[in-house]
Amino acid sequence: MSCLHEEFNVDRLKHCKHNDPKFASRPIPKATPVILDDATDDELYIVEKLLKKRTFNRQVEFLVKWHGLPESEAT
Fold first, then answer.
1. Which residues are CB-contacts of 52 (< 8 A; sequence separation ≥ 6)?
2. Domains of the chain
3. How far apart (Å, rounded) are the C-alpha atoms in residues 39 and 62?
4. Cα gap 10→33, rounded to integer Å
5. What is the pLDDT, as a whole number, of residue 65?
6. Is the pLDDT of residue 1 over 60?
7. Distance CA 71, CA 75 (A)
8. How far is CA 46 from the centre of its chain?
């Protein structure tokens, strides 16, 4: 177990084939509804669009345009 890592190289990922004939007998699961907790007073922000992507200190960062807010408020 000491040789297992929690990280992997994303270059090893492959594109998912949604209609792969090997799995034709498997049912396609439906999306589950999102249940929001109304007990908290936190506001809900919905992503409208990703404007930019950059790598900073080996971390990927995105500039997000939020729904209902002007583009000048993007974070």
1. 62, 63
2. 10-73 (2.40.50)
3. 29
4. 29
5. 92
6. no
7. 9
8. 13
The 10s digit of each residue's pLDDT in 11-51 is 888 887 677 777 778 887 787 777 777 666 677 788 889 99
DSSP 3-state of 53 = strand
Pairwise CA distance, residues 32 & 46, whole Å: 18
Asked whether the predicted pLDDT for residue 64 surpasses 90, the reply is yes
State the Cα–Cα distance between residues 11 and 49, nearest whole angstrom.
Answer: 25
CA 21 to chain centre: 27
Which of 36, 64, 60 is closest to 51 using CA atoms? 64
Handedness of CA 62, 65, 71, 73 (dihedral sign): negative
